[in-house]
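thread from #wetlab-drylab

HS: before we spend reagent money on co-crystallization trials with zinc ion, can we at least see a predicted complex? here's what I'd submit
DV: go for it
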Amino acid sequence: MNRRQWMALPWVAAALGRSSAQEPAASPQLPSGVPVEEPDNVLLKDYYPKSIYKIPQSAIPKARYPAIDVHCHGFRPPQSVEEAVKFMDAAGIEKSVIFTGASTPERFNEVKAPYAGHAGRFDLWCGFDFTGADQPGFPSNAVKALEECHRAGAVGIGELSDKGRGFGARGGGRGGRRGAGDRGGADRGGAAPSNAETIGPHPDDPRMDPLWQKCSQLGMPVNVHVSDPIWSYQKLDNTNDGLMNGYTWRIDVKPNMYGHDQLIESLERAAGKHPKTVFIACHFMNLDYDLTRLGGILDRNPNLYVDVSARFAETATIPKFVAQFFQKHQKRICYGTDMPYNARMFATTFRILESNDEHFYERDQYFNYNYHWPLNGFGLPAPVLKDVYHDNALRAFQQARKNAT
Ligand SMILES: [Zn+2]
């Protein structure tokens, strides 16, 4: 009999001054409404621990340095651009890169309108038009559309997404991933969702070369999403450390798909083949679990940067090692959110980057993604914060513009 079963015995309850005859207090409920009869029945998805440690808890509503958010998918009703700017002002966000998802000049002109009144606060990025990517003649139309989007004001491309079936791929249901939303917004490059499965070009596919070249000629950096959190590829059993999120975003790699390692290698080959094109691999290139490997890729490719967006939960579990990684690759890591704008979201990202707080939980669904891990601060020093918040993004943008011909 374990301690809990012993505690449930009526005479023990009585001894502990809880008379079993008493009106049973309303039994605590699980978030799912299921009464907590037996803690043994608590499912991991319903496990909502609260830290009770009497330790420092930092409230950091504003970034230590003016920040550039290099990863934002724009604002949807009911949130307006005006409201978003208020959150940006309060949090010290100087500028945000907006992935408009537009891959044609017509669409781009539509999407850019609400940002017109906020000069200097937003950089609008477009997508690639992957229509007919499997047809002869691709990507000449896509290159033309890119030039027109550039003329219309697009200053970068992203977020391009390849989770195994290539850019602009459609359908494929569970083979790819489940869930309407994307964990890091897929590019909507002309690919209308349908279930007819198509396979698109991977980053180092020769069909992408004219597009990568055009990006460097136009001085446009590119934000690329390859793969997904590693736990999505692992066995989904009780040994999976990131089980609940891994299950939600599970990826079943089918024969015609690229797996995690192939995607990482494909993007590195593209960056190597196009040294004048500036790539930002978002979400730590989904190598948050193997930063040594990521460090090697950054060392070999000076035109490659990473953004930290939507991987705060995955990194705030290993703060010491991550802080060392930030120091070692101080000039190549860009601040990014990939989350809806609100004061709490920003404050939690600042707390993780700046404080030495330990063992705290953030249950916002956009933040913690059902990981059951407590979070910790990296305690990054001022010079690293200045680069990560601001100067690295500027450096990447300037590097791209300097390469323009
Ligand atoms: Zn994203």
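DV: The first strand starts at residue 67 and ends at 72.
HS: ok that's useful, forwarding to the group
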